[in-house]
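Here is a tokenized protein:
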Amino acid sequence: MSRAAAAQGAFAAVDLGASSGRVMLGRAQDGGLTLEEVHRFANRPVRVLGTLHWDVLGLYRGVLDGLRAAGASAGTGPGELASVGIDSWGVDYGLLDADGALLGNPVHYRDARTQGMPAEVEKVLPADVLYAHTGIQRMPINTLYQLAAARGSRQLQAAQQLLLVPDLIAYWLTGQPGTELTIASTTQLIDPRTRDWSSPVADALGLDPGLFPPLRSPGDPAGQLLPDVLEQTGLAGPVPVTAVGAHDTASAVAGVPAQGGNFAYLATGTWSLAGVELMSPVLTDESRAANFTNELGVDGTVRYLRNIMGLWLLQECLRAWEAEGTPQELDTLLESAARVPGLRSVVDAGSAEFLEPGRMPQRIAEACRRTGQPVPRDPAETTRCVLDSLALAHREAVFDARRLSGQEVDTVHIVGGGARNALLCRLTADACGLPVVAGPVEAAAYGNVLVQARTAGAVTGPLSVLRALVRSSVRLRQYAPTGDHSSWEQAAARIRTDASREPDAPRDGGQREDGREASCA
């Protein structure tokens, strides 16, 4: 297929989140970009013999069904589907044997096997040395700590190759192994200066360098759909797979509709990833102490950010209330929460105490009680506590990113599922004292498609041009800051001392997960 023919086709964005996956069909035309969701499928983790796994074969089946639906929408003839790009959450991986067969379903990063692993790793790699090599925060879910937990296991001993989730899907589609750079940077095994695997880190932990496949950058070719994949999806080949920002946050940041470079972003969903875009990493000890991460982005950028627990807190509350027989309708709940007095109680939205599922309303209440704050009495007060806490965490992350990097910030862009949540957007504007621009919800899919379209020649130009295409294609909502900003500083002071009590508290470098769980995610 010629480059000119590919430029006229449609682009399939496979976007895998922690609770669902979907395939979006994008077309670059008339100075803008259109997106169509052609297939959505559930992503349900499974606990087997005490270990929490991803059902990666179920995900792959969903991808095949989605590509079939994309072909039905775009047309199944040669060139109708110009390419496929895949993004997902970070850190999790599958291990392949010498024949390229998967040795077991990937373990979910919320599994308890990594508890205590950061301290174990620091016995051979002190925290400051590890940060100097990788620029990634100390967070138990990181691939590095997962591999440390798996040391000595027969599965790891038998493994010949490690593929992160989007790269595993791409391998099954094409037969070509490789690892995309932005997703690789979530492992805590990449040096952000050389943009390559860190041999000193791998050597210190006794990891075989052969486990890690060659790196690809966004826009690089990642193979073509195999004949059996074409047969299962009804597509006519050749259909190339293009490396995109395979970490969904990398694609989401590429899809931020910013004008100029003085912006902060909040990629919101189950997690909130809050930070700024830089051209070089910040590897200072002050940055490490503030738990900022230096993940790699599209076009040589660095995503300098902190990870916040995100709307996982509200998702888990909703699940708990439903299990108790008191289900809450989200829109009604948010309306009630808006009437609750603000900043009555706040919790540390980066604390590891909220990482695992279960009993979330009670755990929030316990945190408020421990810090001497009023305990939420009903779902509306709990929801207001969650949203105030998230807005406060957004504020702290934006201010710290600006201070530590020297990057000016005049606007905050909220993308992902949280962009639907008007109360969260308004509170974030008030907390930051900065205008907030909300949207698009589908930023990851926009970023995914735009990298494919640029590779095919359907669009040209740097990130600023791609972002202008997003601005011209979506409806954005703006929130101006109001109220007394000093009250947010007083609220922050309430939890700063308490937040320092947990050495493994996750503060950055994690997952957007799924920004598509209604307006609470």
User: Anything to note?
Assistant: Confidence is low (pLDDT under 50) at residues 500-521. DSSP finds 20 helices and 21 strands in the chain. Residues 3-246 form a domain with the Nucleotidyltransferase; domain 5 fold (CATH 3.30.420.40).
